[in-house]
Amino acid sequence: MTAPSTTPALRGLAEDVSTGRVFARTCAAEWTRLWTVKATWWFLAAAAVAMVGLGAVAGFDAAADPVPPQGDPAWLVSSISAMPAQFALLAFTLIAVTSDYATGGIVPTLQWTPRRAVLFLARAIVTAGAATSAGVLLGLASALAAFAAARPGLSLPLDEGIEVLATVAFVFAAGTVLAVGLGFLLRNTAGGLVAVFLLMLVLPLLLPQFGYEWMSALAEILPGSGAAFLLLKGVPGMTTVSSVLVLLAWAGGALLLGWLRLMRDDANR
Amino acid sequence: MIEVRGLTKRYGDVLAVDDLSFDVEPGKVTGFLGPNGAGKSTTMRMMLGLDRPTSGKALVNGRTFTMLAEPLREVGALLDPGSVHPGRTGRNHLRVAARANGIPERRIAEVIEQVGLGRAAGRRIKGYSLGMRQRLGIAAALLADPRVLLFDEPMNGLDLDGVRWIRGLLRRLADEGRTVLVSSHLLSEMEQTADRLVVIGRGRLIADATTEEILRGLGHRQVRVRTSQPDQLLTRLEEHGFTVQRVDAHELRVEESTAEQVGDLANSFHLPLHHLSDVQQSLERAYLALTSDHVEHHAREAERAPTTMEAAQ
Ligand SMILES: Nc1ncnc2c1ncn2[C@@H]1O[C@H](COP(=O)(O)OP(=O)(O)OP(=O)(O)O)[C@@H](O)[C@H]1O
Ligand SMILES: [Mg+2]
Question: Would the CB atoms of A25 and B100 count as touching at under 8 Å?
Fold first, then answer.
């Protein structure tokens, strides 16, 4: 056995470490936790294929058009390809939260970071932050791919780029924060994925199809309608303001419920 | 040092831990003993802040675990070795722990070496045997050189070598002045390992003393005697104040007596004896006797089994 580095009897109580320090360390641990499992890389790869792939396809399409576009902005592709890609990033985030519950890993996690508020914030910021940042970079890559493939048909005006990427960032951030909250609330990968897909895709698409007034009204207050409007426009009944508010309310609400469950309940039973 | 004060945990109708109070002192291996479902794991989970006590508290080095900034420097714990992400490598698992507590990277290699995980540390945990998972959990517990160690049934599913290794490790950790709490449901396992025993049943404290004291207190004596005239012997013995049990047509059990006493008494009444012996109360049975009132799962019949058990021996 290697001799212990210090004799426990000689050491006093653990020195005071500031909460900021603890938070920074917890973020570092969460970062390592995130990138040392395969699922993270798979979902990121899926998002990359969707965004860059769609960008390139759109670019080639534009170039092959008998009436080639005359310098239309390539940024449109970023927000269109963000629509399918967001689901890979939602799964990325959700699984980063729930896999600890699926595997029992939450037991060591809370042994290493027993201050649950710190763990919650670190995990929310690291996972949603990583997914959103990756999403924005992929949005950029998507537009660049379209631009390169269609050259010289498309253009890359800076001001419009900033606006589009900011919108993509907001939609991804709100969606992934929602996923974090649902993950902590439901503590279950399958349940969380179903909930995310229902809220972000299935219900917003399905409800208006029934033709009832109240169902359409319900669809308008679901986060998926907000995301779709911001990325694609053309969602009846939605405005930019209502979309932003709906997304913020869902993300905030889910985060609050997830927080309460983590803070109040037993670790995993 | 661990102080448990009035610790209680209720899950719906189940009172898993019931007003438990005891101390775990440094420099000793303390065995935390109880049958299945006694509440050992629940107690340990509450010590670590994983489960919220219904009432009462557990202090580690005078503080609540959930307040600690660098918990791994205070307490190392192995609860369930299966509670890890199987897709991560052992080394990455430890790396997460080290990051979370500001522990230098080199300690990871040291503990991997110390627990004998070796090259397996670079492989995914899903390929680990139970013994390797136990070692990984122990490596995480030792990572920051803590003064308090908690192990929940660390010998479960280990082969003889593994058990011997853990015993040696526990001994060393206690000799270095650390506080060591080890749970088990087997007295035989603890009698060779623990200096002190905290025995619980149905969430209640049954005994809290040195291992020696507990074993001595349990060893109540019995004499087994066979005779062709059991009815007469039984009457005589009872006349002399012994508690006697009729075991079968020709056999009696005499409580709290010695073979000499029973032999002399039989002789004085000229009763023929075919067999006379002191029954060494088996430790496991003694322990069962101690906890039987508190055992939840054992059916009534199980307690009537000793005769059959004896016959089998
Ligand atoms: N989440 C829960 N919900 C309901 N009952 C529970 C829960 N967790 C534990 N229990 C009950 O609490 C009691 C104590 O369980 P615990 O796991 O602490 O026992 P133990 O002494 O560790 O047993 P073992 O030797 O089997 O590990 C048991 O009756 C168990 O069924
Ligand atoms: Mg247990």
Answer: yes
